[in-house]
Amino acid sequence: MSSAGRRVRRAALVVLAGATLTSLLAVTAAAAAPFPASERAAATARTDVYIKDVAADVGVEPHLLEPLWISPDIKVCPTAVECATSQNPIVGVTNYVFVKLRNPGPYGSGVGSGVLRVYRTTPGGGATWPTHWTEIGASSVIAAPGVTTVTIPWTGVPGPGHFCLIARWISDSDPMTVEGPSIPINASHNNNIAWRNVDSVLLNPGAGPVVRPFAIGNTLRVPSRNEVTFAAAEPLRAIGGRVVVDLGPELFERWRAGGAVGAGIRPVGRTQVEIVEPTRAFLGNLELNPGERLRFSLLFSAEAESDGEIAFNVTQFGPDNNGERRADLGGVQYLISTGRR
Questions:
Q1: Domain limits at 250?
Q2: Would you say 210 and 223 are in contact if contact means Cβ atoms under 8 Å apart?
């Protein structure tokens, strides 16, 4: 080979080696980066908007605060002006649901952008998500640091006007950690889900009973046995209070077939039992089929006027989807008061 040919060959090798080195450096740099720039930006933009489950909730997930179903950040009012305390919705007119979004929680910062959705179901426990829930409304929200109150109109409220509510904050930068058929698990593991089951019961002394619906359900794929407990914060006897549970034919027969397990109760009719020890009463061994949810009625009455409200909690306990054998599957806090209408 001539000296000119050798010089051309050496020059080509230098060019090839330089190109190979450049390629290797590019590959090495790409491998060194933990993820693309767009993903790094998304990671640093993590936001954390939360809704309180209970007054002491600071957004930690999961948590063990109970009961999960009395969120102070969800309120129902009869007008578009926020009321002092939540009220039962009025059937046939537009009501308004107010939800407080708190920013930031412990897992992010910055302005949160997303959609707030509110849902309803029959009061009680064991409501399977999303099967037993109906959407009330939704609103796109920019949640700046601090507390943002969102107002969602509630039109077409069906009778009898007593519901459980959940609020869900949906945001790409603030995703759910886990979400399955169990509302208690969803609410405790996601600080952007909150639940409120509070019902006001105003009684007219000496008049007939006021009726409230209550439902118990099974979110499992196998049959389950459940318990319903009844607990008053203070004795109802001061107002001559009476609470009767009407299980209805089907649920009463299941209770009877399960051994009529219970305490603090006495039968008063073909399908009814009266709560005679409202601080420690329960009905147990109630069998439910997979995915089933059955309704019964609570009948409240009183003989005397009261000075304030008496909290009366009704709660369903049973096996949950996380393997817990006796979990709080949901309940309702009835705030009982009396007075002349």
A1: 200-338
A2: no
